[in-house]
Amino acid sequence: MAKKPAAAADEAATSLPASFEEAMAELQQLVTQMEAGELALEASITAYKRGSELVKYCQGQLDRVEGQIKVLEGEMLKPFAAEEAEE
């Protein structure tokens, strides 16, 4: 049985992004469209749901990386100082 175009679009919208950067780019695009008022009500709701999924994905990625940093730092997470990074 062939998929309907709308079902294919819904499936693409719920797929996970390939990277953190891709998720952030898609999220920025959604925010721009929503702020510009370019979307109909139903499309806005769909965009909001997708944005929520992307935020959850990004938070998970950040948590995973933070866990890796803790391991690299011997479980002692050191505060980041912007002055040290600029040197």
What does the model show?
- The chain starts with a helix and ends with a helix.
- The model is unreliable at 1-9 (pLDDT under 50).
- It has 87 residues and is mostly helical.
- It contains four helices and no strands.
- The protein has helices at 5-14, 20-36, 41-72, 82-86.
- The protein has one domain: Orthogonal Bundle (Helix Hairpins), CATH 1.10.287.
Write the layout of secondary structure elements.
Elements: H1 5-14, H2 20-36, H3 41-72, H4 82-86
Helix pairs in contact: 2-3
Summary keywords:
single chain, 87 residues, mainly alpha, Helix Hairpins, 0% strand, disordered N terminus
Inertia-based shape: elongated
The percentage helix is over 70%
SSE series: HHHH
CATH overall fold name:
Helix Hairpins
**Rg result:** 18 Å
Distance between the termini: 61 Å
How would you concisely characterize the structure shown here?
With 87 residues, the chain is an all-alpha fold. Helices cover 74% and strands 0% of the residues.
